[in-house]
Amino acid sequence: MERENEVAGRVAEVVQHGRPLPAFVLGTKGKRLRVLLPSGKEETVSSGQTLILSRHRFRDLSRNEALKLLSEVENRRETLRKEIELPTLWELVVEEAQAFEPYELAEIYFGPESGDDEAAALVRAVLEDKTYFRLRDGKITVHSREEVERLQLARRREEERLRRLSLGEVFFGKLLQGELTEEVPEDLREYFLSALKDYCLFGDQAPKAREIKEILTRIKATGPETPFRLLVKAGVFREDENLEILRFRIPVAFPEEVLAEAEDLAEKARPREDLSSLETFTIDAEETRDFDDALHFEELEDGFLVGVHITDVASVVSPDSATFKEALRRGLTLYLPEGPIPMLPPSLSEDKLSLRAGEIRPAVSFLLEFSPEGELRAYRIVLSRIRVSRRLTYEEVDAFLERGDPFWNRLYALARAFSERRRQAGAFAITLPEIVLRVEEDGQIRCERLEFTPARTLVAEFMIAANFAAAQFLRERNIPALYRFQKEPLERILGEGEEEDLVKAFQQLRYLVRGELGLSPEFHHGLGLPAYTTVTSPIRRLMDLIVQHQLTAHLAGEPLPFDEGKLREFLLRIEEVQAAASQVRSRTHRYWLLKYLKLHFQNRTVPALVLEAGERRARVLLPDFMLPVEMSLPPGRRFKTGEEIRVKILRVNPRLDVIRVAPA
């Protein structure tokens, strides 16, 4: 910094509040300049704020004269700045040098008579448009042709972005009022709706999240439900749109190629035992259409024979088919309140491969021999052909059992005996009542609390027995396969005879270890079995179809379709789709349950069970809906764990996943 007597009386171009303006130098203060601004204020400015210092000095000016001078200087410099064409100047010097003094560059543009005002005007122009030059350390740097092209492209993009923001503001503003404006071109309307949809689904992780948030901020519409509501108004989403299906990219419609192939797929010729004369029956829910398992029952001299007959999907859907590849993409049939999303096309799952009564179907039959005490003492697995004699529902079988029907009593007693043997071997599983939700075509929501009835127990036990037999068969013959297993619980809270204690059951859930998949069998502590796989639902589960392929190829004396390397690939895929499906199922179920509560129980009181109790908060279960809820407690209000109380449902918002309850 020059000494005070050398800088006083000069006009400095300084930056104040982000803009350049002239200032009359009064002197110095340390390393800073003391200046008089056009506003009449006196300030000190640093060297970083000082752009240029005039060569000419004005001596002995009064304060008013200095202010008049600044006004005249400001007018001259602004007039000159507007006249400057930086592209013209840049073309003159781009090949000459990398940096110039402001006075040197002013002389090139304005001529040799240029002075302080011309140099300062040039500095202003460079600060305003940084495309061609850059001011650094008092010098003006010339940008290369490549840099100018880059900056021009960036400027065009920024101008386009600002134009889009303005149009987006118009578009979303009108949409907020329920109008679709023609002021915005159709391609931009589609752009905005696509970006808004991504933002609604993925939040800040969406590609255009910042742009969408800026537009919504401009129209003062930043509520958490706003993106969804706008998309409903635009007709992109329905009021009950399942966002989880979109978030996890769950395929819903089948490709035309797969649908066409499924119509033409034919059964692979293999030797089969004709078991069509057996009295086989299916037991499923009333609404079931994809029947993949059937049973038959015979009394032996010293025990019982149970036939578990599984539709032979592998004989029709080969690994090289488009249908199998689509099943690999889907992973399972996803059952949702709105309806199922099947793994296989309906022409297969509900027709050609479904074990419908009266139809002859290829099957894999597990002929399981039990002792009267429920021990699985022998089994035979065969490729077969069956004809289902009767289609039964769980309700019908439960009615048979309630009436004491001898046939069903014996079959149920055997299932219970097998279950008890598993329990004695260490089986430890929690069976909670299930809330089944169904959305009818007219939008009505049906809610049913489903207990695990004897009929369901009967079917489940014999499916477990068949899967166990399959695992034993595969293991003993060293056939590469996929297995399920589960490690011991971290801690056992639920004691024998406490299975109906919902509080302890929910506490126990925290200590259960998640089931796993692997290429070798391990003990399944949830089921109490030394080896376990699943092969009884090949219509609905990819794992079952893969295992069935391995099993049927061996039974037919054919080469195995999959080696361990391929099975390892399948394993990763199955784990991936299971994780996604689990989240989609639970979130979708919760949405419809909360909607049901909002429609029928908001502002009403319902029974509750205290799962955990603290001083200010409690976690309660609404047992009629099997729904745990966090609840704030008013001062002085305390509950005990296990206490039965009543709560009032204050507010429910299904879309935001909010439910608020209070002690009644």
Give structural notes:
This protein is of the alpha+beta class. The chain folds into four domains: 140 residues, SH3 type barrels (Roll), CATH 2.30.30.140; 91 residues, no CATH class; 336 residues, no CATH class; 63 residues, OB fold (Dihydrolipoamide Acetyltransferase, E2P), CATH 2.40.50.140. Helix content is 39%, strand content 24%. The protein is built from 19 helices and 25 strands. The strands form seven sheets. Strands 9, 10, 11, 12, 15 and 16 form a six-stranded mixed beta sheet that branches. The protein has a five-stranded antiparallel beta sheet with strand order 4-3-2-1-5. It is elongated and about 130 Å long.
- What is the tally of beta strands? 25
Quaternary structure classification? single chain
* Sheet of most strands: 6 strands, mixed
Q: What share of the residues does DSSP label as strand, in percent?
A: 15-25%
Q: Termini separation (Å)?
A: 77 Å
Mean pLDDT score, rounded? Answer: 95
Radius of gyration: 39 Å
Low-confidence stretches: none
The DSSP helix count reads: 19
- The helix fraction, in percent, is 25-40%
Number of domains: 4
Structural class: alpha+beta
- The geometry reads as elongated
